[in-house]
Write a structure and sequence with these properties.
Rossmann fold; alpha/beta; 10 helices
Length: 256
């Protein structure tokens, strides 16, 4: 086991409210397990994968549940993992075979039909309205016919999405520091919420096979407050399924 695996310990609030975390380090509602299990089902040893908005790969260098890291780490299990991000920190991401810094709204520097899967994990909420159409088109351009785009993103009209948009972007770092004291400022980015409803996804990826579902996860955003966790979990239980906090998005490129 690596040093980070030895250091991993579940959030104490998580362990108190979801005691099953003792069995493997994750809860029955873990969105990362759901998302990356499905990604693993869509790739194989010959797959080329693009991690769109890969960032610094915090999960590969900080203590997380070993099974979560195993699911996330595609490098070495697929043919190639390429990552792009607007932040130069992507060049230090240890989960990538190749990294590129791509300016916001700039075309992806890859040939048509280059990848078998493109994934965007909590990235779509940061796309500007004026870039959304071009971003979607460019993602599908670099996918081979039959390839998959996989994304998870906060739902715009969930209480989490509404709350995030009520906080000015300039205050996000300060607010998240109070809720999630372990989160680094470099992992916080402005939110736009222009590609974050089922209608948005169907509109931007028209002509392809779109599959979107809601995911109710444990409220990690509540930080280390047991009361905040209980309140957030209670609210989510009361809300209808279509208002689930997270959207899981899977789009298969058409053959045309």
């Amino acid at each position: 086991m690596t040093e980070t695996e030895h250091e991993f310990a579940p959030n104490p609030v998580l362990a108190r409210l979801y005691p099953e975390v003792a069995a493997g380090g994750f809860t029955r509602m873990d969105g990362s397990i759901d998302f990356y299990t499905r990604i693993n089902a869509l790739v194989g040893p010959d797959s080329r994968v693009l991690d769109f908005g890969a960032g610094r790969g915090w999960w590969a260098v900080e203590p997380i549940a070993p099974f979560q890291r195993q699911l996330r780490m595609l490098r070495g299990r697929v043919k190639e993992v390429v990552g792009t991000d607007v932040d130069p920190a992507v060049m230090t991401n240890p989960s990538l075979d190749e990294a590129r810094v791509v300016e916001l709204g700039a075309p992806l520097p890859f040939d048509d039909d280059s990848f078998d899967l493109v994934m965007a994990d909590f990235v779509l909420e940061h796309i500007n309205a004026e870039d959304a159409h071009d971003v979607a088109a460019d993602i599908m351009r670099v996918l081979r016919p039959g390839g998959w785009f996989a994304a998870r993103t906060p739902y715009r009209w969930s209480f989490v999405g509404i709350g995030a948009r009520l906080i000015p972007n300039r205050r996000h770092v300060k607010v998240l520091k109070r809720l999630q004291p372990d989160r680094l400022p470099e992992d916080v980015f402005p939110v736009r919420y222009q590609m974050n409803t089922r209608k948005d996804i169907n509109r931007y990826f028209v002509g392809h096979h779109v599959y979107v579902y809601g995911q109710v996860c444990e409220p990690q955003y509540a930080g280390r407050s047991v009361l905040a966790w209980r309140i957030a979990a209670f609210i989510e239980r009361l809300l209808p399924y279509r208002l689930s906090a997270t959207l899981m998005v899977f789009v298969q490129k058409g053959d045309a």
